[in-house]
Fold:
Amino acid sequence: MAGNKTSRRERIKKGIRKHLTGTVERPRLSVFRSNKGIYAQIIDDVNGKTLVSASSISKEFAAAGTKVEQSKAVGKLVAEKAVAAGISKVVFDRNGYLYHGRVKSLAEGAREGGLDF
Structure:
């Protein structure tokens, strides 16, 4: 079953990425969700550079609580870093995951932090 779930997400991810690219003016906010943590990075696809990143397992992150609460805090952290780097508008890439639970919480945290998408 693990291969089927992964291949399904990869197929959905390819469909999303066909229509979604990060530009210099509006970079892509990509989300990766693992069993232990959640990761977010803001990517400029034109130059192939990661501009800002944050995760729930990084040293600068110190929030306890449920995974959903941690996701919201990661969203706020990545938004703070992005605003400091001069990024205010992004394109949200859910990376094949459903917009529900931790992914939705991260997006809401990023919006509260000042990102527009």
